[in-house]
Amino acid sequence: MLTVENALTYHRKVFAFPGRVTDERSTGCNSLIREGKAQLLTGAAQLMEEMDWQKPSAKPTQAALFPSSMDRSGLTDSERALLRLFDERATLSLTDIHTQSRQDNSMLAVTLLVGTIYAAVNILVDVAHGLLDPRLMERG
Q1: CB under 8 Å to 127, separation ≥6 — which residues?
Q2: Burial status of residue 66 (CB atoms within 10 A of its CB: 0-12, 13-18, 19 or more)
Q3: What's the pLDDT score for residue 135?
Q4: Which of 39, 45, 69, 86 is the Cys-Cys partner for 62 at CB 3.0 to 4.6 Å?
Q5: How many CB atoms are located within 10 Å of the residue 94 CB?
Q6: Distance separating the N- and C-terminal Cα atoms of the chain
Q7: What's the pLDDT at 132?
Q8: Is 73 helix (H, G, I), strand (E, B) or coil?
């Protein structure tokens, strides 16, 4: 119960699943609900809704990480070629990228690494500025 009191002190939501009234182990949860210290939960979906947790609809694709609207003026020819591929198809295998880009392995590896770092930095900047919910970046 100390944890509940601490959570309430910090204005955090507290939830509890009700238990059978005849079960001694349900006394704590049922008391919290009865005293208004915890909100009654009936399932995981309700908890996700209450906490405003939204399951990401899909993993980000190459096209989502490198949108066609991004400024491409400072990019190399190799980077622009890859972005054109991503504009055409949302998801490509590494073999497809290699075959269609016609870049040698070492140049392709460097270009993909630089692009990935660029995308990661932009995502972190968006999170820092409150433009992107960091929970969407959790692995699932």
Answers
A1: 133, 134, 137
A2: buried
A3: 63
A4: 86
A5: 10
A6: 31
A7: 62
A8: coil
Residues 6+ apart with CB under 8 A from 107: 78
**CB crowding 112-134: b at 16 or more within 10 Å, else e:** beebeeebeeebeeeeeeeeeee
Provide the mean pLDDT of the chain.
Answer: 80
Amino acid at 38: A
pLDDT of residue 76: 80
Q: At what angle do helices 94-101 and 105-128 cross, to 10 degrees?
A: 120
Record the tokens describing residue 95, joined without a space.
């073999």
Give dist(CA 39, CA 51) in Å, integer.
12
